């Protein structure tokens, strides 16, 4: 088998096909979860929701998502990504369709609980797959590319949801997007295998993938062990402080634009399509896509130039934290264009930040432990998201103002980076039983 040094340009690019497949998984995952936020004004009018009702529906998703992350991480580390992700995709696609049958707030809450539990497998499974298919030097870019699927999903959602809801009613939109999940499920079962089992992967590409050395057999990482490790707490704290900002934009952005900028969901003869929420969401999440890929590229580029992994990752996190700071002014933006640009910068910052802290798990943990730690951090992020949903719902009910909410959004990334650096100043490998310590 050829040595890594001999593979200046590795023969075989199948791993990038796997990355594209993971991109598709994350894209449909986000379409299914975000459609309710896009159609909130229409469903709210039809169903008679209050702001607190909607906050409770969002909380139901986040609670089941967080609990699911605690369980699914260890499940994926135990049964493997191919089987575990296939089950999850099937279940969340069914749950997405069930939203169309909802007749009251309780029905929506039950559908969101099932959806959240199943969708919790997406990121642990995707990041674990990147750790299996990519060497360390390429992982941040791989994670950045799959993470861009979240932005594409959110970007496509208003196009798909508003078009279908306007033509056939909001229930049809849930059925159509749920059925797309089964297309992705077929692609997953058809094309995903482990690198050593895949006949389409050349020996040279396998050598490239395994260039960091074969990992020794490790014990399955337990929650009790992980909770005592600083390497797990960096991710738990990072997600707890920053995920609420992403959930805020995911579920409340159309409402924020409507309340602070007077934008509408459907165009009128006076306003035209470019004064509506749909194009604004497209702009926001296009910028988020750029942030996701650029954040992954930057740290990988710095490592290729000889920077240490620690310095490269944290420099990228600092750039993202600075980019997010202008969010504190978004509630008083002088025009819709300025508001969209500020929010777009914030979502770009979030995705650049997320791409790198996801990758830092694989930097410090063996592959068999990645999904467990990611699940724990994702659960912490869901708890933060629950708090954000409740605070947002009650703040709007009582004050009708987004000012205190976006103030936190702008400062969250600087706070998270401070915690991360204090917890893992040198990014030492985690002490997992059986793992090689450097």
TrEMBL record:
**UniProt GO cellular component terms:** membrane
Domain Major facilitator superfamily (MFS) profile span(s) in chain numbering: 18-428
Name the residues that span the membrane. Answer: 12-31, 54-72, 139-162, 168-189, 232-253, 273-294, 315-333, 339-362, 369-389, 401-424
Subcellular location, record wording: Membrane
GO molecular function terms noted in the UniProt entry: hexuronate transmembrane transporter activity
Q: Which keywords label this protein? A: Membrane, Transmembrane, Transmembrane helix
Q: What is its main location?
A: membrane
Mind telling me which InterPro entries this protein's record contains?
MFS (IPR011701), MFS_dom (IPR020846), MFS_Na/Anion_cotransporter (IPR050382), MFS_trans_sf (IPR036259), Sugar_P_transporter (IPR000849)
Q: Its membrane topology, per UniProt? A: Multi-pass membrane protein
* Highest taxon of source: Bacteria
Point out the signal peptide segment.
none
Q: Would I find Transmembrane among this entry's keywords?
A: yes
**Family matches, as SUPFAM superfamilies:** MFS general substrate transporter (SSF103473)
Q: Does the keyword tRNA-binding apply?
A: no
**Pfam families to which the protein is assigned, alphabetical:** MFS_1
Q: Coiled coil located at which positions?
A: none
> PROSITE patterns annotated for this entry?
MFS
Q: Which PANTHER family match?
A: HEXURONATE TRANSPORTER (PTHR11662:SF285), SOLUTE CARRIER FAMILY 17 (PTHR11662)
Q: What name does the UniProt record give this protein? A: MFS transporter
What is the source species?
Croceicoccus marinus
Q: What is the lineage of its organism?
A: Bacteria, Pseudomonadati, Pseudomonadota, Alphaproteobacteria, Sphingomonadales
């Amino acid at each position: 088998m050829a040595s890594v040094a001999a593979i200046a340009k590795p023969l075989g690019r199948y791993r990038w096909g796997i990355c594209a497949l993971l991109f598709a998984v994350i894209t449909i995952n986000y379409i299914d979860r975000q459609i309710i936020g896009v159609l909130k004004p229409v469903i709210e009018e039809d169903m008679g929701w209050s702001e607190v009702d909607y906050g409770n529906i969002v909380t139901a998703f986040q609670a089941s998502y967080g609990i699911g992350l605690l369980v699914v991480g260890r499940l994926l580390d135990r049964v493997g990504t191919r089987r575990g992700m296939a089950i999850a995709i099937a279940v969340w696609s069914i749950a997405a369709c069930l939203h169309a049958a909802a007749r009251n707030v309780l029905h929506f809450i039950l559908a969101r609980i099932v959806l959240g539990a199943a969708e919790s497998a997406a990121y642990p499974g995707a990041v674990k797959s990147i750790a299996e298919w990519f060497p360390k030097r390429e992982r941040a870019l791989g994670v950045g590319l799959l993470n861009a699927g979240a932005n594409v999903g959110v970007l496509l959602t208003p196009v798909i949801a508003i078009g279908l809801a306007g033509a056939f009613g909001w229930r049809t939109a849930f059925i159509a997007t749920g059925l797309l999940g089964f297309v992705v499920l077929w692609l997953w079962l058809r094309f995903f295998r482990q690198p050593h089992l895949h006949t389409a992967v050349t020996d040279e590409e396998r050598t490239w993938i395994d260039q960091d050395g074969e990992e020794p057999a490790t014990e399955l990482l337990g929650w009790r062990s992980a909770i005592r490790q600083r390497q797990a707490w960096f991710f738990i704290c990072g997600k707890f402080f920053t995920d609420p900002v992403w959930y805020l934009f995911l579920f409340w952005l159309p409402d924020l634009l409507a309340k602070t900028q007077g934008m509408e969901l459907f165009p009128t003869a006076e306003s035209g399509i470019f004064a509506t929420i749909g194009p604004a969401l497209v702009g926001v999440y296009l910028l988020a896509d750029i942030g996701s890929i650029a954040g992954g590229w930057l740290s990988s580029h710095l490592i290729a130039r000889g920077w240490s992994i620690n310095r490269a990752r944290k420099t990228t996190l600092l750039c993202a934290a600075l980019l997010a700071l202008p969010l504190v002014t978004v509630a008083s933006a002088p025009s819709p264009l300025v508001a969209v640009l500020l929010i777009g910068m914030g979502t770009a910052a979030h995705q650049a930040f997320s791409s790198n802290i996801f990758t830092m798990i694989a930097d410090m943990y063996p592959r068999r432990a990645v999904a467990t730690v990611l699940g724990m951090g994702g659960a912490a992020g869901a708890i933060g998201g629950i708090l954000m949903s409740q605070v947002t719902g009650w703040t709007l009910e009582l004050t009708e103002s987004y000012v205190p909410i976006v103030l936190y959004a702008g400062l969250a990334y600087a706070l998270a980076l401070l915690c991360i650096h204090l917890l893992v100043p040198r990014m030492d490998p985690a002490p997992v039983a059986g793992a090689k310590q450097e």
